[in-house]
Amino acid sequence: MLGWRSDVLVRPAKAGDASPLVKVFAESWRGAYAGVIPQKNLDGIIQRRTKAWWTAAIRGGDGLLVVEHAGAIAGYATYGAARGRGRQQGEIYELYIAPIYQGVGLGEHLFEACRARLDGRGLRGLVVWALAENAAASDFYWRRGGRPFNTIREGFGNTQLEKVGFCWA
Ligand SMILES: CC(C)(COP(=O)(O)OP(=O)(O)OC[C@H]1O[C@@H](n2cnc3c(N)ncnc32)[C@H](O)[C@@H]1OP(=O)(O)O)[C@@H](O)C(=O)NCCC(=O)NCCS
Asked: So where are the chain's domains?
């Protein structure tokens, strides 16, 4: 667990964040999935996360946090009610830190903030899904106490990729 840091701020996304989120999304998804998700599909996913998409998500209200480092948006997370029918009621849908900001503790701050907000909503237990090929993400969740409980396959074009579900009691 990290202590308080004056250069790091986790907060709900606000209107002016839409443009930086387009960039953070593109950089973090390319960094995580280039060579894993087929290029054409990855390009499509990134192209769909337009400024308008983020503006609508921000207007939608709760469930979208950003982490700022020294005033710049370094990453984001989305969270809410678990989509599956398991015992865990909360889910972090996406948690992404831009590559140049990775490994300095920002992901941990964001993760803890999501957990606190899910707790605050009365959602008990947590699920996160990560691509099996994304070893860094699996390691990160394992070290935060998550344990694999299920796998599913997801199709990207003709490529089937395995996703691992991590859960916290
Ligand atoms: C996986 C990911 C979210 C992790 O976030 P991150 O900011 O890189 O990770 P952190 O720096 O918070 O944590 C990494 C480790 O470094 C430690 N650390 C690094 N710098 C630190 C610092 N300055 N102070 C304290 N701890 C630090 C953390 O405690 C943590 O250690 P541990 O996991 O052994 O306990 C991030 O790398 C990422 O976005 N990756 C690409 C996208 C992705 O895979 N997302 C998840 C999809 S499911």
From this structure: 8-124
Give the residue, by CA position, lying nearest to ligand 1 atom 14. 103
Q: Is the pTM of this model over 0.85?
A: yes
- The answer to whether 145 and 103 have CB atoms below 8 angstroms apart is no
Q: What is the pLDDT of residues 118-138, one digit of tens each?
A: 999 999 999 999 999 999 999
Q: Which of 79, 108, 112, 162, when mutated, tests ligand 1's pocket best, judged by the most ligand atoms within 8 Å of its CB?
A: 108
| DSSP annotation of 101 | G
Q: Which CATH code for domain 8-124? A: 3.40.630.30
List, in order, residues 6 or more apart from 26 with CB less than 8 Å away.
Answer: 46, 49
